[in-house]
Model the fold of this input.
Amino acid sequence: MVEILNPKVAIFFIAFLPQFVDPAAALPLWSQFLILGTIVNISFSSADIICVLLASKIMSLAGKSNKVERLSRWLGGSLLIALGAKLAITQR
Done:
């Protein structure tokens, strides 16, 4: 669903896939686009699934430790404060 509902995917297809379609090939243009689009969607979806599974594993390991949870909250909060300070300094 992520790949289907993301407008950047449509822009990607419009911008990059025509470079890999051969009008002189034995297959019609629509089938070449269909094959290339399917390959790209499978690749992107596989990457998304791998990221979700790794994040789930990391969170399950990190969630068991109070020390890791405190450290991640402290780091996340510090990062947000630092970014807010940088934004406040650079905005005029």
Q: What stands out?
A: The radius of gyration is 22 Å. Residues 8 and 14 are 10 Å apart (CA to CA). Residues 2-64 form one domain.
